[in-house]
Amino acid sequence: MNDSTLELIQLNLYQFTKKERTLAQYILDDPLRVIQLTADKIAEETGTSKAAFIRLCQKLGYNGYSEFRFALSRSLVATVPQSGEDPIKQITNTYSQFILQISSMVAMDQVHSLAEAIVNAKRLKLFGINRTALSAHQLRMRLGRMGFDAETVNDAITMVDVVEYLGEGDVCIVFSIKAMHQTYGSLIPEMVARKTKVILITMTPNNRFSDIVSQMITLPFISKSSSKTFYDDQAILFVFNEIILNEVARLSQP
Hints:
- The chain is of the alpha/beta class.
- It has 2 domains: about 5-75, Orthogonal Bundle (Arc Repressor Mutant, subunit A); about 105-250, 3-Layer(aba) Sandwich (Rossmann fold).
- It is built from 13 helices and 5 strands.
- It is globular, with a radius of gyration of 20 Å.
- About 35% of the residues are buried.
- The model has no long low-confidence stretch (mean pLDDT about 85).
């Protein structure tokens, strides 16, 4: 859609039902929070229903929540370069704006809880596949310099072996941008069953693991911001790692 999603909502408020207006106002009041929540959670927080929210999305011209969410993200941070715009300024401004979104999408108590889990872990594993393995590796290297032992696991076969000996007191941080079921569909439930604390760092809030992991943190999804401009989500993950490390360092002070 060419129009800003928020402008579209504002222009159509008059034709919404009472429940839809409640949802619309919730979105207008805090659009960044909407991006990080599931449709079920939005319905719960507004005292409405998931069906009412989906109807609202469809009235606005979207197929459902996922399409609406990505459109809302695009409208909040315009990433398509304007004709004649300095590409250096355009790219750095876009990354800056997405990095600034982290503070609106992640609460400090979430960071504190994650850092506490790292500090108190009996064994600490960091899972990542392909490009997210870089984020897991970066966190491991930085934690090692601070005196914390962690293992990065970056292939599915080794992950299966590792999961078999994890248990209570162990912590596994999973970096997965889309929280793909085909990759972690059996691994995460198995770790949960073994009472391993699983922390999912993702950019896709509406996933199959959100209700079973010990903690889920949702970050801005920069690569989904535009179909014409290509950005790398790892930059966002690297910055969030620095936030984690800062809190780990604070908790480790004597």
